[in-house]
């Protein structure tokens, strides 16, 4: 942490003695942090919190006496506080950890099933960064998400990731009846996307979405959205056609791009190095949309930390697309929208509650905002 006058107070809650030992040492020794306690379950954590309230809670999901999601909901209902979930990311566990995000968790950090001690030591720097960023999160937005969430049902792109050459059309991109909407988001985006997509009618334009998530989560996330939305939602596969009433979510660990064939748009799913520190990268998606859709597209950048998507959104705007950013008050983290606004890539800044109008064309963009 740089420039922090007061250390971030951290409470670790995990039934694994190894995790408590490693994370306790990490937060005790790292400058800018102060470990309040490392507790084996939420009931012990409640006692520690009665003495001194933490700035951030690092929380496991599966624990005795009270599970982590129940404890998370209790925290968000009584005194909203940033919570970082440190959980084993497996296909089996993905629905549970997605429930944690629905309940108001700030972020999820991977905890493997094997090689736990070595992995935690290696990932310590990343966890410190996430916890430091969580301490500055918009807690009111997290609390609103937790309250509103419905209970879950039962830089220059590398050469190999540059957008494929767009088809020649006499110089300018030919406008077609096909419209696509490209959305990029990160921290806080899982619940924000659900809120947005639930408002969309079945005839909404086709959507392509990058949400920064580990690869085990994206299919489960897409399936959950599909179960609660009028539009169809699924994880993108290479060659999928982008159709009205369908949202395609980039697979975790792979980049998503758009390719135009005649008057139709198709998804391109490919491997490649991280771009803007992410794979999938919002910049990769937006850059391809700029090249292949131009003014036939709408770009939306939403809550998330960092600057992924800012440059790509500027490319979209330059190519004639209409561009929007989620406003600061409704973002959990305003980093990505802020960077896009600073670059001049955004036509209009809107609250989350108005972004469905941006998707369906009910909002008229105002250049220069």
Automatic annotation (TrEMBL):
SMART domains: REC. InterPro entries: CheB-like, CheB_C, CheY-like_superfamily, Sig_transdc_resp-reg_Me-estase, Sig_transdc_resp-reg_receiver. The modification 4-aspartylphosphate is found at residue 60. Residues 9-126 form the Response regulatory domain. Phosphorylated by CheA. Phosphorylation of the N-terminal regulatory domain activates the methylesterase activity. Pfam families: CheB_methylest, Response_reg. The active site is at 186, 212, 308. One of its GO terms (cellular component) is cytoplasm. It catalyses: [protein]-L-glutamate 5-O-methyl ester + H2O = L-glutamyl-[protein] + methanol + H(+); L-glutaminyl-[protein] + H2O = L-glutamyl-[protein] + NH4(+). GO terms for biological process: chemotaxis. GO terms for molecular function: phosphorelay response regulator activity; protein-glutamate methylesterase activity; protein-glutamine glutaminase activity. Keywords: Chemotaxis, Cytoplasm, Hydrolase, Phosphoprotein. Its EC number is 3.1.1.61, 3.5.1.44. Belongs to the CheB family. Contains a C-terminal catalytic domain, and an N-terminal region which modulates catalytic activity. Involved in chemotaxis. Part of a chemotaxis signal transduction system that modulates chemotaxis in response to various stimuli. Catalyzes the demethylation of specific methylglutamate residues introduced into the chemoreceptors (methyl-accepting chemotaxis proteins or MCP) by CheR. Also mediates the irreversible deamidation of specific glutamine residues to glutamic acid. This is Protein-glutamate methylesterase/protein-glutamine glutaminase. It comes from Pseudaquabacterium pictum. The gene is cheB2_3.
């Amino acid at each position: 942490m740089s420039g922090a006058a007061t250390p971030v107070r951290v409470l670790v809650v995990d039934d694994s003695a190894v995790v408590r030992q490693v994370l306790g040492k990490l937060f005790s020794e790292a400058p800018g942090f102060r470990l309040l306690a490392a507790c084996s379950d939420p009931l012990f954590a409640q006692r520690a919190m009665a003495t001194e309230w933490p700035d951030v809670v690092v929380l496991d999901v599966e624990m005795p006496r009270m599970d982590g999601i129940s404890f998370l909901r209790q925290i968000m209902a009584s005194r909203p506080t940033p919570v970082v979930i440190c959980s084993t990311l497996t296909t089996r566990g993905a629905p549970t950890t997605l429930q944690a995000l629905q309940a108001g968790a700030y972020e999820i950090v991977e905890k493997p099933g094997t090689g736990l001690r070595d992995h935690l030591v290696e990932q310590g720097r990343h966890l410190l960064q996430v916890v430091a960023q969580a301490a500055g999160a918009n807690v009111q937005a997290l609390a609103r998400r937790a309250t509103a969430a419905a209970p879950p049902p039962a830089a220059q792109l590398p050469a190999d990731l540059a957008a494929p050459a767009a088809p020649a059309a006499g110089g300018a991109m030919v406008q077609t009846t096909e419209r696509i909407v490209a959305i990029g988001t990160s921290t806080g985006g899982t619940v924000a996307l659900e809120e947005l997509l639930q408002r969309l009618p079945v005839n909404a334009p086709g959507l392509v979405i990058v949400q920064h998530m580990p690869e085990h989560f994206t299919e489960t996330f897409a399936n959950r959205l599909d179960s609660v939305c009028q539009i169809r939602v699924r994880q993108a596969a290479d060659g999928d056609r982008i159709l009205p009433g369908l949202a395609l979510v980039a697979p975790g660990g792979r980049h998503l791009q758009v390719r135009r064939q005649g008057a139709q748009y198709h998804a391109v799913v490919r491997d490649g190095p991280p771009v803007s520190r992410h794979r999938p990268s919002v910049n990769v998606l937006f850059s391809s949309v700029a090249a292949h859709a131009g003014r036939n597209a709408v770009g939306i950048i939403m809550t998330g930390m960092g600057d992924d998507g800012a440059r790509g959104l500027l490319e979209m705007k330059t190519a004639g697309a209409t561009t929007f950013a989620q406003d600061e008050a409704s973002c959990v983290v305003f980093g990505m929208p802020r960077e896009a606004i600073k670059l001049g890539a955004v036509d209009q800044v809107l609250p989350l509650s108005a972004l469905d109008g941006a998707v369906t064309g009910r909002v008229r963009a105002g250049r220069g905002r």
